[in-house]
Amino acid sequence: MYLQIFNNPCHGLAHVCYSSRVSCKVRLSRVLAMPPSSILLHMDESNDLPKPKKGFCPSEDSRNSLNSLSADSLLRQANTVGIIGGVSTDSTLKFVKKLVDWSSKDGKSSLPFVLCSDPALNKELLLYEENSYPSLYHRAESTPVDPKLIVGNLRNKRRYLEKCGAKLILMPCHIAHIWYEEVCEGSSVPLLHMGECIAKELQEAKMKPLEAGNPLRVGVMATSATLSAGFYQEKLQSNGFEAVLPDKATMEHTVIPSIEAMKREDMEGARNLLRIALQVLLVQAVNVVMLGSDEMRDLLPGDDPLLKKCVDPMDALARSAIKWAENQCS
Questions:
Q1: How many other C-beta atoms can be found within 10 angstroms of the C-beta atom of residue 168?
Q2: What are the residue ranges of helices labelled H in 164-284?
Q3: 127 touches 97 (CB < 8 A)
Q4: Which long-range contacts (CB under 8 A, 24 or more apart) does 259-268 make?
């Protein structure tokens, strides 16, 4: 099953199914980053609401009404955005909150969107990321993950969003971008790439190199899986930047131990190690450091001076989607 969120101004009541066993009607909350007109549906793979088993259940009329909602009645707007959830549901909802809040400024309504968040896909992406760290958790064996299954799952989500009326697809997930090209194959609508979005924003910032005669340098701080895939480095370099990565010693002695500390819930230790890793990059004459990891981004408090030297691809993705949506309506 997966969580599906339809944002549409025609309906004011939400139906939320927390699991296949418990479901209830609730009013929506801004804390969930959903505007008051959103509809939340927890559907099974057949795109129907789950059959009630125990606990509170919606009436038959409510179920029929929700199941009858079609892409034509819900999302016929030309600026509808489809979102594929990533490793963390929490991170996905934070992204959606930014998308809603930033597109609702100056009295404007937020842009219409559909969100698919599949726990099975979340788990596959997380396992793939964890397997990139041989020492993580000091495990004797790692759980194998077939990338073909991940690609197939991502494509299915993309196709479903297209059927729901999405005119633009977003993947607010660093790891998912490893298979960006494969997911794009056969798509009838564009997919924004986070690397391209952040590279364009850095170009528009008109920064100057810290060392005369050298190209403008951008640090890249991310997990081993994201760094090994190289898509952020490729996008930066194709837009005229020099990508600077943590060296082997920094990865082994600060970045990976920082992630291990997070998993042990030693947040202060993880935070201090991340600060050291960022400072190692900053002393190499980089203008900014791109944080290609949700966990790393959330480690630092909002008032941390190091954050002023960091940029977030997720934020660039949200701003690019809003700009696209505004252009569709102009």
A1: 22
A2: 180-184, 194-204, 224-229, 231-238, 248-250, 256-263, 267-282
A3: no
A4: 259/133, 259/136, 259/223, 259/295, 260/135, 260/136, 260/137, 262/295, 262/299, 263/136, 263/137, 267/299
pLDDT one-digit tens code per residue, 62-115:
445 445 545 444 557 888 999 999 888 899 999 999 999 999 877 677 888 999
Res 10: pLDDT: 37
* Distance of alpha carbon 325 from the chain centroid: 18
CA distance 37 to 112: 10
Give how far Cα 159 sits from Cα of 156, 184, 191, 193, Å: 5, 10, 12, 17
Alpha helices, DSSP H only, in the chain? 60-67, 71-74, 89-103, 119-130, 147-163, 180-184, 194-204, 224-229, 231-238, 248-250, 256-263, 267-282, 294-299, 313-329
Confidence of residue 177 (pLDDT cuts 50, 70, 90): very high
244 strand-pairing partners: 219
* pLDDT tens digits along 107-156: 677 888 999 989 999 899 988 888 876 555 444 456 778 899 999 999 99
Higher pLDDT, 106 or 25: 106
Domain architecture of the chain: domains with CATH: 81-193+316-329 (3.40.50.1860), 197-312 (3.40.50.1860)
